[in-house]
Specification:
Length: 75
C-alpha cells in the first residue's frame, strides 16, 4: 500500500481514475458519482485544488460509465 503525502500535488493517470470509478461503483452503486463530488468539494474547501480536480475527474468517469451502460441497446 502506498503512502499518502497531503502536501504533494496529485495528478491521477487515466487508469487510476477508472480504477477509482469502478471501486466507487462497486461499493456505493448509484451514489458513486455523488460520493466523488463530495470528495471533490471537500478538497476544494480545504484548498487542495489538485485533489479536488482529481475527484471531479472520478465523478465524471462514473457518469460517463453510467451513460455508456444506459445508452447501449439490449440484445
Amino acid at each position: 500500500m502506498g503512502l499518502w503525502y497531503p502536501e504533494q500535488d496529485v495528478t491521477p493517470n487515466p487508469h487510476e481514475v477508472e480504477f477509482m470509478a469502478e471501486t466507487l461503483e462497486a461499493r456505493h452503486g448509484l451514489l458513486a458519482a455523488q460520493i466523488a463530488d463530495f470528495f471533490s468539494a471537500f478538497h476544494s474547501y480545504e484548498g487542495d485544488a489538485g485533489r479536488s480536480w482529481a475527484w471531479a475527474g472520478v465523478a465524471e468517469a462514473v457518469r460517463q460509465r453510467e451513460r455508456e451502460r444506459t445508452d447501449r441497446p439490449l440484445l
